[in-house]
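FORM 7B: Structural annotation worksheet

SECTION A. Query
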Amino acid sequence: MHLKYTILTQKGFLARPLQRMNQFSLLNNFSSVPSKYREELDSFGTISVPDEKYWGAQTQRSLLNFEIGGVEERMPPPLIHALGIIKLAAARINHKHRKLSTEISSAIESAAKEVIDGKLDDHFPLVVWQTGSGTQTNMNVNEVMVLGSP
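SECTION B. Predicted structure
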């Protein structure tokens, strides 16, 4: 990981909204053509992500790797909301056992509630056709909670 590209947000999360790009190959999952992009960095390098979306490099790569299905085959919102419940519970129990600070726990809880309430549903583009473990969906939820946190 190249830390020179990483910034710390006010909530204490790591984020990487850096360089803007003008070109990008779009997938059938987008309902409109984004006009701005940011560069996201992961262990594979940089990748362009639509600026208005809260997902990051892992989700974008999954969209490219599993270019199948469409909007009607996205992960069901109740499943995404359930992952929010799990992350909320994990934050609370880790805070209770002093594994997370109050500040970090509160930020995770706030973001998890947004996921649970469906306020961020437009930021979960992945389809059900992916690897069997759901790793990409879990990463998508993590990225959205970080980049979309209030």
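SECTION C. Observations
The radius of gyration is 15 Å. The first strand starts at residue 7 and ends at 8.

SECTION D. Sign-off
Analyst initials: ____
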